[in-house]
Amino acid sequence: MVRLTTEKTWYRVLQITGEDGSTCLHNLVWYGQTQVIKLITEPLTAQHLIHLLRITDEFGRTPLQLAEYHKGQVAAELLRDYQSSY
Question: How many CA atoms lie within 13 A of 36 on its CB side?
């Protein structure tokens, strides 16, 4: 699916939030799915990726904060690398 859509469409899909305000990125962090995080963020521009990293859930947590708070140490390192790259 990632490869079948334009970057702009994919970015819009990744912004969709659930009832708790979490995005797909929040959920992937929660479950420690770093390989999937890499796959879905690969086609994004730096501007879009930074925006996704700043979206907060209903508790005011960004995906990085969620990763740091829970067991997602590898995910936290990956997201920190993304933020420092841009």
Answer: 12
For residue 46, CA distances in Å to 11, 31, 79, 85 come to: 11, 24, 13, 9
Check if the beta carbon of residue 67 is closer than 8 Å to that of residue 76.
Answer: yes
- pTM score, two decimals? 0.80
How far, rounded to the nearest angstrom, does the alpha carbon of residue 78 sit from its chain's CA centroid? 10
Domains belonging to the chain, first-starting first, are: 2-85 (1.25.40.20)
pLDDT tens per residue across all 86 residues of the chain: 556 678 888 889 899 999 999 999 999 988 888 899 888 888 888 889 889 988 999 999 999 888 888 765 777 888 888 777 76
DSSP H helices, 21-72, are 24-30, 34-41, 46-54, 63-69
